[in-house]
Amino acid sequence: MSATPQPPRRTAHPRVLVLRALGLGDLLTAVPALRALRRHLPGHELVLAAPERLAGAAAATGVVDRLLPAEAPGRAVPTTLAWPGPGPDLAVDLHGNGPPSHLLLQRLRPGRLLAYAHPGTPGVPGPVWREDEHERDRWCRLLTWYGIPADPADLSIPVPATPSPAPGAVVVHPGADAAARCWPAERFAAVARALRAQGHRVVVTAGAGETALAGCVAARAGLPPDHVVGGTADVPFDRLAALVAGARCVVAGDTGLAHLATALGTPSVVLFGPVSPRLWGPPPDPRHHVLWHPGDDPSPRPGDAHGRMPDERLLRITVDEVLAAVRNLPEPLPARTPARHGTAAPPPVNVPTRR
């Protein structure tokens, strides 16, 4: 390993900065790692560098003290971080693997940096990056390598106190941030129409800019306009989480809403295409049903997750399959009291310096 760095600065309020400047699903898959940091560094202020639109979601995890606005197009690394004052006592790279994110954090001169090893930044030790690894496992393995126990199954977030705008509804979410992961709108509409005919209340959700898509699905399903939630802007997180927490189930592609259903324990049917569910899917649980048809290519990334056309594996999923999966889901768990995490944290570990 590399030479020992300068000793960390000691401040009245030690701070740990975590870089995860991505989307909602990315934040939720990092919850086990964030919770491990909170549990073992209870005296630190935990600051998350992430898009400002995720402030509500970050607060809802119950472990993030403050959000530092940071984002870049797509899944790129931000060019700068508006970090005030002296460098953080600890910086943790949960964004990716490589020089851009490593160097971004190193420029802040943190006392310590926890990250995966990369030949482009030989001064940063760490475990070897694995391409074929679930996102929750990846970040927990990173922390464990540095002596911070982390459990990938520790992924739940507190149930919001906000009442659901549609208790017991089936939530259908047709959008995704790339066309490759968008199941056709007419198929979502067929699912929504059939579920409505079976007596279910159906709500269509939409992220910012998805008004037309959600409206198309709702109209084809015969749903009134007030059964569409969101569209012109992101739904406020407390309202979105309340809707999902109180839902009969969620039907969605590999998106943030699917991860939210997992985090809240809401039954879900999740449609996968270009990327295997073994990298981004829910944990094994009868409440979550995954649909994926890889064909003759069982590799973890057989398609382009950011492609401009629906992935061929996604198109192999039929309306009847989705309806059968919804039918076979267990009933939601009884309403839960909002959880409180971190109230009895164990003593902090001594995070090792670079050696």
What does this entry look like structurally?
The chain has 355 residues and is an alpha/beta fold. The protein folds into two domains: 15-145, Glycogen Phosphorylase B (Rossmann fold, 3-Layer(aba) Sandwich); 170-327, Rossmann fold (3-Layer(aba) Sandwich), CATH 3.40.50.2000. Helices cover 28% and strands 13% of the residues. It contains twelve helices and eleven strands. The protein has helices spanning 24-29, 31-40, 55-60, 99-106, 135-145, 185-197, 211-221, 237-245, 256-264, 277-280, 312-315, 319-327; strands at 15-19, 45-50, 66-69, 90-93, 112-114, 170-173, 202-206, 228-230, 249-253, 268-271, 288-291. The strands form two sheets. Strands 8-7-6-9-10-11 form a six-stranded parallel sheet, with helices on both faces. Helix 2 packs parallel to helix 5 (135-145), helix 6 crosses helix 7 (211-221) and helix 6 (185-197) crosses helix 12 (319-327). The longest helix has 13 residues, at 185-197. The protein is globular, with a radius of gyration of 21 Å. It starts with 14 loop residues before the first strand and ends in a 28-residue tail after the last helix. Mean pLDDT is 91; it is low at 1-11 and 337-355.
